[in-house]
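Postdoc handover notes: sequence design on the structure in folder B. Input tokens:
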């Protein structure tokens, strides 16, 4: 049974790929204009569910920082993140986690 399931899956993917090759652009345009909610769902489903980021930051640069806000601003600058965007994300996480101390 498992071998036939794989074969059916492979056949479906081959036929689907051929269909996308032939009609893909026009279908995508039509779905985008007529069913934007479906278009966005498909788009979101194609994005990775989890992303890992490994960042090395030299914290010795923060030695003379006088406040948490200054440290936050320096870190966002070091990481190349816009402080306004990072601050919005931090506030959003605070609301999501319902943590009034953040």
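Designed sequence:
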């Amino acid at each position: 049974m498992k071998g036939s399931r794989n074969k059916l899956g492979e056949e479906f993917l081959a036929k689907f790929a051929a269909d996308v090759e032939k009609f893909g652009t026009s279908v995508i345009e039509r779905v985008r204009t007529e069913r934007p909610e479906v278009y966005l769902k498909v788009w979101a489903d194609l994005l990775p569910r989890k992303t890992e980021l490994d960042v090395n930051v030299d914290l010795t640069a923060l030695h003379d920082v006088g406040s948490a806000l200054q440290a936050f601003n320096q870190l966002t600058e070091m990481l190349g993140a816009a402080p306004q965007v990072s601050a919005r994300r931090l506030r959003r996480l605070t609301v999501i986690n319902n943590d009034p101390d953040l």
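Context for whoever picks this up: The helical segments are 2-34, 36-46, 68-79, 83-97. Don't rerun without checking with the PI first.
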